Amino acid sequence: MPVPPRLGSIRIKAARFGSEARRKGEPMQDKYLDAVVLTRRTLTERITEFLIGAADGQALSLAEAGSHIELRFGGAGDRFLRHYSLIGPLTAGTVREPFWRIAVRREDRARGSHFIHRHLLPGTRLRVSRPINAFRLARRQPHTLLVAGGIGITPILAMARSLVTRQQAFSLLYVGVEKAQMAYVEELATMCGPSLTVAETSRQGVPDLKAVLAAQPADTTAYVCGPSGMIEDLIKAGAALNWVPERIRFEIFNTAHRPEDQPFEVRLKDGRIVRVGAGTTILDALEGAGVDTYADCRRGECGLCTTAVLSCDGALDHRDRICSGEDRAHQMTICCSRITGHLLNLDL
Ligand code: FES
After folding, report:
1. Which among 196, 171, 176 is positioned nearest to 186, based on CA atoms?
2. Residue of 299, 328, 332 with the most ligand 1 atoms within 8 Å of its CB, for mutation
3. Parallel, antiparallel or unpaired: strands 196-200 and 32-42
4. Cross-strand partners of 53
5. Is the pLDDT of residue 298 over 90?
6. Averaged pLDDT for residues 185-194
7. 246-250 own/partner pairs: CB under 8 Å, 24+ apart
8. Strands 248-252 and 220-226, how do they pair?
9. Measured in angstroms, how far is the CA atom of residue 171 from the centroid of ligand 1?
10. How far apart are CA 234 and CA 190, in angstroms?
11. How many CA atoms lie within 13 A of 17 on its CB side?
């Protein structure tokens, strides 16, 4: 089944980049670095912070606010691949850290986060990508609204630090069940002062996001990271207030993994069958089986991994932000989407 022209051209560019480098005999830049866990620290009952350094002891590069890294871990074959935002220093100013700071929330039935909490100890080796920024903070805005839900605070904290350091006007709404379960509340209070509002849903209920947007100065741009329902609500609130869509920028975590996920199998055109476990993605499973694939964002935002579906014995469960309309019937982003049945035949 043909891939739509836009996606087709992206795939062709990616393929060309690889083949041209090979033709010229240039080494392909390795996307991953050898890294090591330097320290870990418990932030809440479910959230643990990790400082990650280069295995050779060199300082790691600075990352822009909003950047994330891919972490490969899980023993031989690096059986897990997950994305984590880079938090950076916990105070404003020009402090430079030669390591990368991430925070990982242990999710129920999410094997990757359980593995991290259990097995990533100081000295553990892993592979990390260079920083990728798909959630870039604009340098100059009249006013910025930052909204974080739960562990979505990680990129938002980096943005808040950037705005404080550059003395830009902003406000930050940080939503969680209760403070005891929310990471970095004290650091944010010190860093942001009156610009920070902490909303505990167990005490105050879910904040009225439409009222929050309506209270912002004109020309505010909002950045939101958290559960997909919260992001959808903010987008809807913005639409109701006639905000143009570009004024609400978002980052979604864990769209690929849900507690109710079940394993299934993927059949390739050559007849090979690849099992996709409940805690992994089709893309990760195919890569683990040595299948050639294309991917970039790995979270349903870029479209590079879009693959035609030949058949499926259940329903396609689309979890990306780009596949829409008729496309949803015959193609899927394999980095995050799944099926509800047992067998998926892909045009691969
Ligand atoms: S890799 Fe970007 S949408 Fe799948």
Report:
1. 196
2. 299
3. unpaired
4. 36
5. no
6. 97
7. 246/221, 247/220, 247/221, 247/222, 248/221, 248/222, 248/224, 249/135, 249/221, 249/222, 249/223, 249/224, 250/135, 250/223, 250/224, 250/225
8. parallel
9. 31
10. 26
11. 8
pLDDT above 70: residue 220: yes
Q: Which atom of ligand 1 is nearest to the CA of 322?
A: 3
- 53 and 38 in contact (C-beta within 8 Å)? yes
* pLDDT in the model for residue 119: 92
Higher pLDDT among residues 8 and 47, named by residue:
47
**Residue in the block written with tokens 């870990």:** 40
Both tokens of 245, joined, read 């869509």
Q: Is the pTM of this model over 0.90?
A: no
**What CA–CA distance (Å, rounded) separates 108 from 142?**
40
Atom of ligand 1 nearest to the CA of 320: 3
Alpha-carbon dihedral sign for residues 273, 279, 284, 289: negative
- Pairing verdict, β 196-200 and 170-176: parallel
Residues in contact with 106: Cβ distance below 8 Å, sequence separation at least 6, in sequence order: 46, 47, 48, 113, 114, 116, 117
CA of 286 to the centre of ligand 1 (A): 14
Q: Which residues pair with 198 in a beta bridge?
A: 174
d(CA 264, CA 194) in angstroms, rounded, equals 49
Per-residue confidence (pLDDT) for residue 294, from 0 to 100: 82
The ligand 1 atom at the shortest distance from the C-alpha of residue 294 is: 1
Residues lining ligand 1, judged by CB closer than 6 Å?
Answer: 295-298, 300-305, 320, 333, 335
